[in-house]
């Protein structure tokens, strides 16, 4: 269980997160939506330990996040950033292997190597292992990093729940890979993992999220199943855009038409 | 890169190092033939006696050999330092000369050159021989920390700020060193001037022992952090998520780096651009894995500086060209080329440092 207890975050006198509480469960793909500047990234960064809340506590399992060592957390919690800049030429294989760093000291084991191979295969990047990371397109680089974070939490560590945080993971991907990405995220959630993703595309949220949290101006205004939480009124409220929600016969999820 | 490729590169570089050491031992103001070198070694190890004059032997063992070996060790140290600093700043154009480590160490050492004689309390104590390297270490450390703190905001190093901070810190250190050479008595001043461009002419076994010890300790420690430094290539937040204590890593790396550069600079002076050229060549050969870069830097850095010193000794023989002129002559154009590349890729929006 991931629990947020009255989180607040201020920087330079501005309060960005104004008291957010909530719970995230394993087995569900949770998504955070909200307009620019609503505090989505800040909230996710607090959950992943990059930022420390000014007020409030985050609970991972039974222990407060700030009481847990980064070294131990790295074995069952992975974070994928919006964009990762890397100025040096490394092979794709070497980048993915970084995901296994928390699991070995000096040399990767045969298992680590096998996990990296499987992670690349899962992202349909089998032929990329020896390619220079710097020569890849933005979307390909993002898939390499997804393979890296998957390799990091590939299997459960000492019966701990696993946690995966994704900060706008699909912004640089094409249509096909966006869906592929979210399918994999959903698959991982089902393997007893807490998955929290920030997403902008409301239709993708409608189609893939099991649990939706809407943020506006640093406050949580709605949460729940997307089919119930995501209403025409919410879209107007969040983005100031009039939207129609339609229910086509051909698919089993509603479509948001702007 | 494949691990087997790395193994082959190490093997090739080790052979190359052996080769250039042999050539460098033989060439110079006094020429030794290879069979003569063989005889020296055999006699020294007590296997045979030979007929070479004692003066030749003296020159070889007391001047030539320690000098060549000193070049190898300092080359290794400066190149490894370049690798470490590039990983820390996440930028391939960083090297100890650029970010003030060398000039800070030079200022520390110069102050001992000039003022050391007045510090009578250390004379004859165990502190006397380590005073010079310790002062160089302190100066180098201070300069590195200033540049790193100024250029690193929120885990990102801004290239322009880093270069300007380096310019400023180098200028402060240079004016300090300049002032010291101004107030110094003539022989001290001359030695400071020489030593600002680096010189191996004073290399002896004691200095070699000191630099070798510092370099080996730093090498072993640095290898332990190679994996963490790789993770740091992804950025500080990503490294943190991979379980690395980034703050403590940064301090350890700065300390290890300054230990090597400080001690080396105290012994042979300021030699620029070695730490830039060597890791750059290695990256083109075998990628950016820091373990590979560290081992490769130790070998290729040694090769590069032994060669540079050989050139310094032979181009105007019997006079010597300061070695810093040669390393800068090769290194500065490489630096410019890399800087141009970096500015271009920044314009494309894909590259930051």
Walkthrough of the structure:
The complex is a heterodimer of chains A (about 260) and B (about 350). In chain A, about 30% of the residues lie in helices and about 25% in strands. Chain A has about 260 residues and is of the alpha/beta class. A 6-stranded mixed β-sheet of chain A has the order 6-7-8-3-9-10, sandwiched between helices. In chain A, strands 2-1-4-5 form a 4-stranded antiparallel β-sheet, with helices on one face. In chain A, helix 3 runs parallel beside helix 5. The two termini of chain A are about 35 Å apart. Chain B is mainly alpha-helical and about 350 residues long. Chain B has a two-stranded antiparallel sheet with strand order 1-2. Chain B is globular, with a radius of gyration of 21 Å. At the A-B interface, helix 2, strand 6 and helix 3 of A face helix 9 and helix 10 of B.
Give a nutshell description of this structure:
The complex is a heterodimer of chains A (258) and B (353). With 258 residues, chain A is α/β, with parallel strands linked by helices. In chain A, 32% of the residues lie in helices and 26% in strands.
Task: Order the strands across the largest sheet of chain A as they lie in space.
Answer: 6-7-8-3-9-10
Helix content of chain B: over 70%
Poorly predicted segments of chain A: none
Sheet/helix structural class of chain B: mainly alpha
In spatial order, strands of the major sheet of chain B run 1-2
**Overall geometric form of chain B:** globular
Specify the structural class of chain A: alpha/beta
β-strand number of chain B = 2
| Number of distinct helices of chain A | 9
User: N- to C-terminal separation of chain B?
Assistant: 23 Å
Specify the biggest β-sheet of chain A: 6 strands, mixed
Beta percentage of chain B is under 5%
Q: Could you say which overall geometry of chain A the principal axes of the C-alpha atoms support?
A: globular
Which pair of protein chains has the largest interface, and what are the residue counts? Answer: A-B, 31 and 27 residues
Q: Give me the Rg of chain B, rounded.
A: 21 Å
Number of helices of chain B: 14
Count of extended strands of chain A: 12
Function (chain A): Part of the ABC transporter complex HmuTUV involved in hemin import. Responsible for energy coupling to the transport system.
Organism (chain A): Solitalea agri
Protein name (chain A): Heme ABC transporter ATP-binding protein
Pfam family, one (chain A): ABC_tran
């Amino acid at each position: 269980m991931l629990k947020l207890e009255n989180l607040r975050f201020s920087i330079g006198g501005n309060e960005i997160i104004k008291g957010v509480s909530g719970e995230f469960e394993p087995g569900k793909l949770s998504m955070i939506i909200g307009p620019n500047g609503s505090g989505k990234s800040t909230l996710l960064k607090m959950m992943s330990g990059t930022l420390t809340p000014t007020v409030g506590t985050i609970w991972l399992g039974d222990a407060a996040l700030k009481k847990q060592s980064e070294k131990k957390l790295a074995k069952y919690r992975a974070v994928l950033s919006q964009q990762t800049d890397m100025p040096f030429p490394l092979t794709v294989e070497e980048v993915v292997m970084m995901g296994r760093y928390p699991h070995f000291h000096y040399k990767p084991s045969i298992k680590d190597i096998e996990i990296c191979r499987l992670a690349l295969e899962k992202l349909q990047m089998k032929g990329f292992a020896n390619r220079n990371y710097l020569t890849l397109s933005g979307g390909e680089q993002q898939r390499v990093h997804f393979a890296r974070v998957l390799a990091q939490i590939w299997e459960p560590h000492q019966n701990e729940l696993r946690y995966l945080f994704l900060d706008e993971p699909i912004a640089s991907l094409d249509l096909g890979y966006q869906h592929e990405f979210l399918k994999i995220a959903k698959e991982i959630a089902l393997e007893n993992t807490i998955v929290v993703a920030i997403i902008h595309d409301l239709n993708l949220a409608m189609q893939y999220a099991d649990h939706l949290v809407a943020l506006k101006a640093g406050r949580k205004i709605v949460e729940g199943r997307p089919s119930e939480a995501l209403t025409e009124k919410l879209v107007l409220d969040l983005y100031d855009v009039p939207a129609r929600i339609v229910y086509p016969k051909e698919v089993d999820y509603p479509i948001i038409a702007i | 890169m494949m691990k087997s490729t790395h193994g082959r590169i190490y093997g090739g570089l080790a052979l190359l190092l052996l080769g250039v050491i042999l050539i460098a031992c033989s060439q110079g103001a006094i020429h030794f033939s290879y069979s003569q070198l063989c005889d020296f070694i055999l006699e020294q190890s007590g296997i045979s006696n030979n007929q070479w004059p004692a003066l030749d032997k003296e020159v070889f063992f007391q001047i030539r050999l320690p000098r060549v070996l000193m070049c190898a060790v300092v080359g290794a140290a400066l190149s490894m330092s370049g690798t470490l600093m590039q990983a820390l700043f996440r930028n391939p154009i960083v090297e100890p000369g650029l970010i003030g480590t060398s000039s800070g160490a030079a200022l520390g050492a110069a102050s001992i050159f000039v003022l050391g004689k007045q510090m009578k309390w250390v004379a004859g104590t165990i502190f006397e021989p380590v005073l010079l390297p310790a002062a160089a270490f302190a100066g180098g450390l201070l300069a590195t920390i200033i540049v790193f703190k100024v250029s690193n905001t929120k885990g990102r190093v801004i290239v322009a700020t880093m270069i300007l901070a380096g310019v400023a810190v180098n200028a402060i250190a240079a004016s300090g060193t300049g002032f010291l050479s101004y107030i110094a008595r003539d022989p001290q001043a001359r030695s400071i001037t020489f030593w600002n461009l680096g010189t191996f002419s004073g290399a002896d076994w004691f200095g070699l022992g000191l630099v070798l010890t510092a370099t080996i300790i730093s090498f072993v420690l640095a290898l332990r952090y190679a994996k963490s430094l790789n993770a740091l290539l992804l950025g500080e937040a990503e490294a943190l998520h991979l379980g690395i204590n980034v703050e403590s890593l940064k301090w350890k790396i700065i300390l290890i780096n300054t230990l090597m550069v400080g001690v080396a600079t105290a012994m042979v002076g300021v030699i620029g651009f070695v730490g830039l050229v060597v890791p750059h060549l290695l990256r083109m050969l075998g990628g950016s894995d820091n373990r590979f870069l560290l081992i490769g830097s130790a070998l290729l850095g040694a090769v590069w500086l032994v060669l540079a010193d050989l050139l310094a000794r032979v181009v105007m023989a019997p006079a010597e060209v300061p070695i810093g002129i040669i390393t800068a002559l090769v290194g500065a154009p490489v630096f410019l080329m890399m800087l141009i590349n970096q500015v271009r890729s920044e314009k494309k929006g894909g590259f930051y440092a």
